[in-house]
Amino acid sequence: MLKKKMILIYSVIILLAMMLMAVITISGMQRLFYRESQLVYDAQLDKSFGSIEDTFMQMQNFALDICINDSLQEILRSQQETGGWDTAASRRFDEIVTAAIYPQQQYTVCVYPVTSNGDVCMKNEDGVYEPGTKHVEDYILGYGFLWEFRPHNNETVRATRNIFDKNDPTRQLGIVTVDLTILKISEVFWTFSAHSTVKGKLYLLDADDNLMLPYSSRSMELSDLQVSDVESVSYELRDETITVVRPFPQNGWKLVCVLKGSSMLAGSKSLIMLILWVGTGMVVLGIVLSAIAAHRLTQPIISLVGFMDKSSEKKQYDRIPVSPSLRGEMRILYESYNSLMEQLQLSMDEIRRASEREIHNEFLLLQAQINPHFLYNTLDSIGWIAVRHGANEIRDMVVYLVGMFRNSLNSGNAMIKVQGEIEQVRCYLNIMMIRYPNRYTAVYDVEDGVEDFVIIKLLLQPLVENALQHGFFDTNQTGCIKIRAFMQEGDLVLEVCNNGKPADLEKIRALLELDRSIKTKHYGIRNVDERLRTFYGEHSRLRFRYEDGFTIAQIRIPGDRLDKEEVWNNG
């Protein structure tokens, strides 16, 4: 059953993967061919559109050159003011117009003077300009152009513009028309149809979507394309026909290009068929290989599942025997399962031990909550008895001892102010002075402002105890012990200095580096160093040096880890 399921799953996955790859590949190839055809098509269309647009722009520019011709402006202005045209004036006017249009002989230009009454002057049989039947109101132009296609059935394109006085833009002096033979524009259409790699056809429409060029269109019915609804290029593979409309800014006419969408993909059909045949062969081969792979994987998996079921029923995490015949991934799977079972067993043992430790810690915590009150009361009673009997040294030792316990326990808080830490060391040193008189003197150098910083407690006492024991008591030497607290480069620095027997710095360094081969009782020093690194980081480690006859134990706490309020609590 498992084997059949695996074969079916593999077959479906391979089939879906190949179908997805075929779709992606075919789609990509179609887009590639389509994009290549589109680029060629766009380039040819841009060239045709630019050629016609340049023609229209040149006609406009030439008409504007005529309108601003100084000689023409002067004679039109002069004759309008005198009120009439004679033979000499008409001849002079024709000479000026001829000279103006001579550089552009491909155009046919006509200039019609306008009288002060707004009548348009036409040339009579004698060659003299005289008011005709048309008025300027017949030419609704303003300051723009009037474009006409085949005016009066002439094979030309005409651009008409008013001539205004340069000195008085509101005064109309005449009308100019620039005609260009349609043959110049038709050449663009012939060139596009003859050289287009992607076969298409160009059409020229006016602003009302009336067909102007070509005169006959038998290949496609332009009326079915709804050209007025197309605003930009539309390349859609699902469309039978692709239509591109580009309007001319000069006159609102449109250049429309139409081609068959299927021609864009003509080169991709044979490649698509090859991809389909190769994909089918790969699917068949994949199904055969999946059957072989499923057969090789099924038996070891079934054996593994059976063993796991037995282990679950017995609730025992035993190792699975690994057969020598297992290879590759299956062997790794068996060994990984065995490793997981071993880790699970170790985790269960650790949980059991942690549970036992938690019970023990809870007992110690309860005991610690009871003992301090009993201890304070007992020591207080001893102190009063010593007062009644005049034993002042006993009284002082009890007072100092109570101070030490009070600061050490600190109401259950894990943190203590620097002032409290110094006071605890002071009590300890006073007790040891009573016990060992005249062995040492204590000096305290605490910088103003550092007393209220909060630090972890019991940092200085182990260092002081170590300094007394190994600096003075073991050697019967006398000397001085200094307790210093100051700020340096933004950090809090605590130092315990003694001028007794110099310490073995190499031995202390090895001790702080956790060299387990060193047998020593300096567990207090190691405890201070570990707590500093745990709470403040590696930069706060305990360091020792010898300077000016003093062994100096230094603690440096980063300034950004200091606070002046006790925000840490262990309860």
Which short descriptors sum up this protein?
19% strand, 4-stranded antiparallel β-sheet, 571 residues
Written account of the structure:
With 571 residues, the chain is of the alpha+beta class. Helices cover 50% and strands 19% of the residues. β5 and β6 (172-181) form a beta hairpin. The longest helix has 66 residues, at 2-67. The protein is elongated, with a radius of gyration of 54 Å.
| Quaternary organisation of the protein chains | single chain
> What's the count of strands?
17
Low-confidence segments, given as residue ranges, are 217-221, 223-238, 363-371, 566-571
Name the structural class. alpha+beta
Spatial strand sequence of the major β-sheet: 12-14-15-17-16
Q: Return the average pLDDT rounded to an integer.
A: 76
Along the chain, the helix and strand elements come as: HHHEEEEEEHEEEEHHHEHEEHEEHHEE
Overall shape: elongated
Helix run count: 11
- The helix fraction, in percent, is 40-55%
Largest beta sheet, briefly?
Answer: 5 strands, mixed
| Rounded radius of gyration (Å) | 54 Å
Strand content: 15-25%
Please report the distance between the alpha carbons of the first and last residues.
61 Å
Task: Give a short summary of the structure.
By secondary structure, the chain is an alpha+beta fold. The protein is built from eleven helices and 17 strands.
